[in-house]
Specification:
With about 600 residues, the protein is α/β, with parallel strands linked by helices. The protein folds into three domains: about 350 residues, TIM Barrel; about 60 residues, Oligo-1,6-glucosidase, Domain 2 (Oligo-1,6-glucosidase, domain 2), CATH 3.90.400.10; about 80 residues, Golgi alpha-mannosidase II (Immunoglobulin-like, Sandwich). It has 15 helices and 18 strands. Bound molecules: 1-deoxynojirimycin and calcium ion.
């Protein structure tokens, strides 16, 4: 019989609580831990497992807020390099960087001014290349963000278009149009922005008269590109090659279903049928991604294309995952559902069923830099997520949210496919909802007229150590405060504090990812549901592993098992309490697989 893994957990060192004395405790603790476990092997693209992405755990780094190496209060590449050991020990296979390019940061970097230059606030290209290689030596791949729908209004292309004037070839790379109405002062369409408000901004002619309008599905600082233009296509293919040549293992594609527009610019129908929306999910997109896939496939190892695709129709979503298109796409359906067994079961079933025909692994995403942190979301009476529903001052039970977020972490880590983890979720950080108004930056907040609290609250710099801000985010001699202030209460949530607490969220994640790596049934592969009490989700992976989540209000008995491998909360009298998940070692007979998913040989090297 297997011993419960928790008992084999390395003893967490006692950390010194005082900030000054503990200056390097996090790094020191990492070193002690590293000695206790075999080092991860270096990766080389040509020898690595070509199917790594089907089971990968991918950690999202929001660079401005991960760690500040030079003390200006802004996270940077030096800060990430310093903490690569932390990420290796957490057990992630890849890191995804939100845009790190030259940008005025009108939308946190999703307004790219130059794809081939790193924002000087973060570092430079040579340092990015060094980081990519250093990560590979620790067994960690790098994924970069590409934002093809729009660029910064400071990008040379847009500046040239403004200067060249109406009818110029420079304007054809964008969507410039005369206004409607007698004086051209009415918007060309009534399309509503994803950031609320209008999608067109009027330009001024060189002589000061009102000029043409240009399209921006997001902010005016993010003009939409015209994907019917050959130079737009060629430039993005060159950008892919630029980063693949530097050893990145994949790209995350921003707003991947928005690029193509109906050239006649019709209004959005009330109920658009499949492919009928003038600026979403147009059929022409698939050819673009077939071209990208050919480029990715021309490189050694597997370079993955990961789509950011928010679509209500899951069958349309799955079309992007056909074998010659994207490898995977974020599964936001699960994230949007409330903490409810029926809802989550439906989401899991629908996700697996939609992915099976295209033989793509599903992804599991609890969080990212755009949505309310899970600890906060799951602590609310309505625990579903929708941008339109975000409101300042929604009552929240953080203790309940934390329990559920722990349970959800184990649930999603046990589901088939790859797993995304947003920085700080491994620390159980809540959404920061009381940021001072004068520190907010998110255009979603401002464009909603302040109704939407915006996304700054999930982007607050990480707490690493010590008992006062900046909690080791910046070096002690730092000249500036973190770009967003951290709550004093985060003293209890620092990496250092959690390092010495075996029941912390950090240790839950570390243990879960270590088990996920060693359990042959986890990651990509089939799932078999097991009958359980109402309000529970129980399934087996492989022959001897079962995950049970209790979303009911009563403690429940566990199915027959020989050991508890891990649980998100302690069992009570042998029962699994509400809002918790347990991973079990079982000796089930070889299961009859009800879900037909591609099984891969597991090789995490
Ligand atoms: C999705 C990104 O995740 C978000 O942060 C950004 O604001 C929009 N796309 C626009 O690029
Ligand atoms: Ca910095």
């Amino acid at each position: 019989m297997d011993l419960p893994v928790l008992s084999a957990q390395p003893t967490a060192p006692t950390a010194d609580a005082a900030d000054a004395a503990a200056a390097d405790a996090v790094e020191t603790a990492d070193a002690a831990e590293q000695a206790a476990r075999p080092a991860a092997s270096a990766l080389s693209p040509s020898t690595a497992d070509p199917l790594w992405w089907r089971s990968a755990v991918i950690y999202q780094i929001y660079l401005r807020s991960f760690a500040d190496g030079n003390g200006d209060g802004i996270g940077d590449l030096a800060g990430v390099r310093k903490h690569l050991g932390y990420l290796r020990d957490l057990g992630v296979d890849a890191i995804w960087f939100t845009p790190w390019y030259e940008s005025p940061l009108a939308d946190g970097g999703y307004d790219v001014a130059d794809y081939r230059t790193i924002n000087p606030a973060f570092g430079d290209l040579a340092e990015a290349e060094t980081l990519i290689q250093e990560a590979l030596t620790l067994g960690i791949r790098t994924i970069v963000d590409v934002v093809p729908n729009h660029i910064s209004d400071q990008h040379p292309w847009f500046q040239a278009a403004l200067a060249a004037g109406p009818g110029s070839p420079e304007r054809e790379r964008f969507w410039f149009r005369p206004g409607r109405g007698e004086n051209g002062d009415e918007l060309p369409t009534g399309w509503v922005s994803n950031f609320s408000g209008e999608t067109w901004t009027r330009t001024t002619n060189p002589d000061g008269t009102p000029g043409e309008w240009y399209l921006h599905l997001f902010t005016p600082q993010q003009p939409d590109l015209n994907w019917n233009h050959p130079e737009v296509r060629a430039e993005h293919e060159a950008i892919l090659r630029f980063w693949f040549d530097r050893g990145v293992a994949g790209v995350r594609i921003d707003s991947a279903a928005l690029l193509v527009k109906d050239e006649s610019l019709p209004e959005v129908p009330e109920h658009p049928g499949p492919g009928e929306h003038p600026n979403q999910d147009r059929d022409e997109l698939h050819d673009i991604y077939r071209g990208w896939r050919a480029i990715a496939d021309s490189y050694p190892g597997t370079r993955v294309l990961v789509g950011e695709i928010w679509l209500p129709e899951i069958d349309r979503f799955a079309m992007y995952l056909r074998p010659d298109e994207l490898h995977t796409a974020f599964n936001f359906d699960f994230l949007a559902r409330p903490w409810d067994a029926h809802e989550l079961r439906a989401s899991i079933d629908q996700t697996l069923a939609a992915h099976a025909p295209v033989d793509a692994p599903s992804t599991w995403v609890l969080s990212n830099h755009d949505v309310t942190r899970p600890v906060t979301r799951y602590g609310r009476a309505d625990s579903s997520f929708a941008f339109a529903k975000k409101r300042v001052g929604t009552p929240t039970d953080l203790a309940l949210g934390r329990r559920r977020a722990r349970a959800a972490a184990l649930l999603t880590a046990a589901l088939p496919g790859s797993l995304y983890l947003y920085q700080g979720d491994e620390l159980g950080l809540p959404e920061v909802e009381d940021l001072p108004a004068d520190r907010l930056e998110d255009p979603m907040h401002f464009r909603s007229g302040g109704v939407d609290p915006g996304r700054d609250g999930c982007r607050v710099p990480l707490p690493w150590r010590g008992v006062h801000p900046p909690f080791g985010f910046s070096p002690r001699e730092a000249s500036a405060e973190p770009w967003l202030p951290q709550p004093e209460a985060w003293a209890a949530l620092t990496v250092e504090a959690q390092q010495s607490d075996a029941s912390s969220m950090l240790w839950l994640y570390r243990n879960a990812l270590r088990l996920r790596r060693s359990e042959p049934g986890l990651g990509d592969g089939p799932l078999r549901w097991i009958d359980g009490p109402p309000g529970t989700l129980a399934f087996s992976r492989g022959d001897r592993f079962v995950s049970v989540t209790n979303l009911s209000t009563e403690a429940v008995a566990l199915p027959e098992h020989t050991a508890i491998l891990l649980s998100s909360d302690p069992l009570v009298g042998g029962l699994l309490p509400p809002d918790s998940t347990a991973w079990l070692r079982t000796q089930l007979p070889s299961p009859h697989h009800t879900a037909s998913h591609h099984t891969t040989e597991r090789n995490r090297q």
